[in-house]
Amino acid sequence: MPRKDSRNTKMKIVNAAWELFYENGYENTTIEDIVERSETSKGSFYHHFSGKDALLSTLSYLFDDKYEALEGGIDLDGDAFQTLVDLNRELFFMIENRVSLDLLARMYSTQLITAGEKHLLDNNRTYFKLLRKIISHGQQNGVLRNDVSTNEILKAYALFERALLYDWCLCNGNYSLCNYSQTLLPMFLDGFRVK
Predict the structure, then answer these.
(1) CA 115 to CA 65: how far, in whole Å?
(2) pLDDT at 5
(3) Total Cβ atoms within 10 A of residue 60
């Protein structure tokens, strides 16, 4: 049970931090603000993070938290193609409404220059596990092609999402990430659909 409590505490800190970063900006958010919003302690904060900068790489946890919340409503025997499009819409809507462009860009830059763990590429994330499950079921149900491996489809899907997020950051969010993706993603995924 202590491990679950530790994970819950960590996620409370992560969620509170990203809410505050969005509301007040990264520079105007203090560790004290994060501790207060998360209803944790400074000791808990420093147990999980070396400082505020360490939170920049945790955006992937926020994404995974969203996927965990959505996972229960997924029908694996349904249309995998549409499920992937729907999941993307939910994630990108959250990003547009809860993550500032500046912080998203900072997170991407930390992933580019880090010599350590690249959270966005961690195959143990809920993101990759859930997508792998949906794609695999889609292949078994005859919706997605079998002549391409599950991992190749997953890699292409994740690459598409990262590319669109990167472009959105480069363009300073001057278009709706969610709407643009809902136009492009079905065209992209169509190459993996059984004809």
Answers:
(1) 25
(2) 65
(3) 19
